[in-house]
Design a protein that fits this description.
Layout (H helix, E strand, L loop, with lengths): L2 H5 L15 H29 L8 H4 L2 H26 L3 H31 L9 H30 L12 H36 L4 H6 L1 H20 L11 H26 L4 H8 L1
Helix pairs in contact: 2-6, 2-10, 4-5, 4-10, 5-6, 6-7, 6-10, 7-9
Length: about 290
Amino acid sequence: MSHAAAGAIDPHNDPTTSTGIPHKKLFMWAFLASDCMFFGSLISTHMVYRLNPIPDNASATGTFSIELTSFSTFILLMSSLMMALAVAAIQKNNLASMRRCLLTTIFFGLIFLECQVYEFSHFVHEKGLTLTSSMFGSTFYVLTGTHGTHVAIGVFWLVLMYIRSFQPLNRAQNPAWPWLNFAHVVAFLATIVVCMAAVLAVTHTLQEAASVGEGIGAFFSHHFLLAGGCVAGLVALYLFARSTRGAVDFNAANAIDVESMGLYWHFVDIVWIVIFTAVYLIEYVPQLTAAAN
């Protein structure tokens, strides 16, 4: 199918297919159906062992930080809102708005991953909960870690879609595009890694400073290079955006690609709501019931 023909197709209905549904969307729904069964088995396994605990199980309420997890859940829900706005923007051929929404979704996704990294680090070093310490640890890390992997894949997909939106309309007149594209990927990944490392460094430094009575200056003296790396990465992204101004080969005809990506992201968010309820909130029901009585 030609690019021009694709642009005339309603993203919600493709009359050229036997099902009336665009093939990309149908494939995504099939994948999500299989992934739903996969997560269902992991959640069921965790629930079975929680309902039938063994002696070496850790105390969930004594391990979890419900405030942190509630915050990360809220952030992930907000990322779904921004993803929906990105889909609506590209369907209206508003490329600038779509890019802003994608960047915000990426930012929120990284915050969620950072919260999960910090949570896992805290559980291992402060609470002694590891993958092999108990059955609770095994099922918990496998379930939440698998979900975190899905979020990381989704963030990477969002990054690639954002980069794709800068592809020039006539690549023959812009031979440097492949190298700029590669530089953009490297800059994005480097910025992600450096920023996540910086946030972890900030958290641990502030905790150490609080314990020994040091000031906030400890962070800037110990992690100046990390802060500089964050600034350098952001500058690299800005320079790339400046270098790729002009007509681009991305418009409302590509709405189905963004919508398929949105389906994946919304699915990951829905799965987290189930995990948050079944793994975290349910542990506090006995305490709430006892308090009510």
